[in-house]
Structures are given as C-alpha cells and as structure tokens.
Amino acid sequence: MKHIKTYENEKVLVLGLAKSGYSAAELLNDLGALVTVNDGKPFEENPEAQGLLEQGIRVITGSHPIELLDEDFSLMVKNPGIPYDNPLVAKAEELHIPILTEVELAYQVAECPIVGITGTNGKTTTTTMIGLLLNQERKAGKAHLAGNIGFPASAVASKAQAEDDIVMELSSFQLMGVEAFKPQIAVITNIYEAHLDYHKTRKNYVAAKWAIQENMTEENYLVLNWNSEELQVMSKNTRAQVVPFSTKEKVANGAYLFEGDLYYKEEKIMAADELGVPGAHNIENALAAIVVAKLKGVSTEAIRQALSTFHGVPHRTQYVDTIEGRKFYNDSKATNSLATEMALSGFDNDKLILLAGGLDRGNGFDELIPSLEGIKAIILFGETKDKLAETAKRAGIETVILTSNVETAVPLAYEQSEAGDSILLSPANASWDQYPNFEIRGDKFMQAVKQLEK
C-alpha cells in the first residue's frame, strides 16, 4: 500500500457504513485522518460502528444530523447506495466539500495495476472470469477481486502488493464518486437503461458509467462491447486505446464470435460451446475476459482450460444440481426483464421450466414475450405473479402455475418436468417483496432443490 500523506490530520466524514464504509474508515484512520463516521442504524444494532469505536474512531449513529457539517470537514466519503439528494450529501455539495466513494481511496493507495469492469449486466461474471484468467500460469503475485463484487476495494488495495492485480467490479454509484481513478484496463460490458430512480435520467446513468475512462491515457486500454452502437459512438471520445469485442461481427483488433468459435484477432481461442456457462450473454462476458487476459499475456491454452471449467458465480445462471435427469439453474440475480431475457437465450425453451416473479415496481413485461415463446411451463410467485401470468398467456405458454414463493415453486416445477429438462430460476424482478435480497432468494431456491433429493 502507498502510504500517502494526503489525509494526515484532515477531518473526513464517512457517511454510511456496511462493508465499504467500514473499510474506508479504517483506511483513512491508518492514513492519519481525523475520521468521523455517520450511519443511520442505531449503535446497539450496528456491529460495524461498534468495531470502529473500539479502534478509537468517532461514530455518530441513528440519524444524519445536518449540523455535523458545521465541523469544517475537508472530505466526505459516501456509501455508494446513499443518493445525492440525501440532505447531508446535498448540504455537503452546497458547501463544496468533495464527495468520494471508497474506490477512489483504493486507487490512491494501490501499488498494483487495476482492471475495472462496469456495465448494466454481466459485471460480476466478467469480473470473476477475468480474475480466474489472470491467476492462470501466474509466476508472481495474485489477481484479487474487489469492489461491487463484495470485497471492499479499499481493503483489498491496502493489502495488495506491487506484483498483484486488482480486478474491480464498479457500479455506476461508485463511479460517480471518483476523481483521479485510472485503471490500466477498463471494460464496459454493455449499457442499458437502469437505476433511473437514483440517476433520474438515462444521460446521467451513462455518464456515470463512462466516468471509468475519464482519466485514462494512450497507455491504457478500454474494452468495449461493439454490439452497442452507443458505445461505438462514445469510443470516439476517449484517449485510451479502444479494444472491441463482438458476437455480431469480426473486429480487427479485438475478440469476436465467428462460426461458433471465439477468436482474439486472428487466433481461435476455443469453441463457444466449450464455455462452462450457458447463454449468449456469457459469450459476450467471455470475449471481454479474453481481451483482458490477452492484453495481460495469458496463453490461449490457459484461457481455454479456465473458461471451459468455469461454471458461473452464485445466483448468476449458476448450475445447482441434476436430479433424475433434470438440471437446475439459479439466476436469482436477474432482477429485471433484460437479465431474464439474456438467461433464457442459453436454453431450449421446449425443455425449460421457468420460475419467475417478485417485487412489483409498476412495470409491465411485454418485452419478455419473444423470449418466453415455446417455454414448456412457467411457475410464478410474488407480487408480480398475476402480471407475469398474463404475459405468459400472451406468449402462448399453456402451463402457467401460480404459487406462494420460490420454495413452493421448486417442487411444482419438478412435477411439470421430465428427464432432459432444465429448471431455471430467473425472476425478472427484485426480491424485496418476500426476501431481503436476491442472494437469500437464490439460497432458498437451492435449498428447495436439495429437498427434492430426500
């Protein structure tokens, strides 16, 4: 870790805890800052705040008092999930207090190169693939996963050595709080419409994603999904070297799908059907990962071997089990229609039972109809089950079953299936009507699958 002097004796307010806030507070404290942590959760219910207090760090919990900003802070480090219209954040902006997220701190102290990955969908899978590939045949150091994937970037950066790499998943929320952040290689998997409740407009959302390349120079590489005309246009406004990937056309200096095979430039890497994870979206993810691996000097054989044995990450088209010839897949991370469409692209609909439903955000599901056509059966739960049932009927699905939740959906799906079928949880909705998060929803699905074996 670089022991920078930037924050020595500077008063810094860390707003919001969870993993990233906790790590940011610890790092700033180690760098000699005078840290105050403010979190809305009451102290007696807040183990992170209790842990920081034990380290001698000042904590204020239970509310976000505006008068805190009377203390002349020189910096605010904000939890990415806290919106900019939060009164304390808005007041900090009014006072011209710089507002960062902890990924900026991570960059400032990191001794090793950073590979940054952002996009609407596919970030976690692509990040995991890249981490796996960069650890193949490695003779020195290690590639560490960090960021939105669940490992606080500042904690990882404070421990990483000069010979390592940090492979960092970055959300739009995190990228709104960067200043000097400059990855060696950046990847944008795709850009669709998302998080408009936070960003207010699509323009703001796209700008947040594009911030990943703001400080990059001709020495750096920007890996872009060439299937997107929008990204092609945006690529003209970067100083980085642009390296494309595409499933629709040959791209001269990047990675592409051609006649069922994955290529980097003119070199065949592997057959698409050798990938260990299903779906057209995972071909895109793999192509992005291949570009990064090749730029970092990983051999073709190492790439092929690693990607053929990679079976996904938890809750993202994750293979769970095979029971009596039925394969079960957990795609609980599919919290919108687009993610479910992408998951469905990897299966034969006439041999597929789909489990879907969840939080009603007021949207319809007509965009799913082309992807649902020909599905053998659909089992629906949650607040949106009636809406989805209407959509399924318009898609021509004959077997539409409504049930209470994921746990009851699994045995019903099994009853409708036969050997050779796949049973896929891909909800197309957030989980919060019934489950605290998509991870718990996916865990409940996998537990219910295990129950079938008894």
From TrEMBL:
Domain Mur ligase C-terminal positions: 315-428
UniProt-recorded name of the protein: UDP-N-acetylmuramoylalanine--D-glutamate ligase
Function summary: Cell wall formation. Catalyzes the addition of glutamate to the nucleotide precursor UDP-N-acetylmuramoyl-L-alanine (UMA).
Intracellular or extracellular location(s): Cytoplasm
Species in which this protein is naturally found: Enterococcus hermanniensis
Listed InterPro entries: Folylpolyglutamate_synth_CS, Mur-like_cat_sf, Mur_ligase_C, Mur_ligase_C_dom_sf, Mur_ligase_cen, MurD
Main subcellular localisation: cytoplasm
GO BP terms in the entry: cell division; cell wall organization; peptidoglycan biosynthetic process; regulation of cell shape
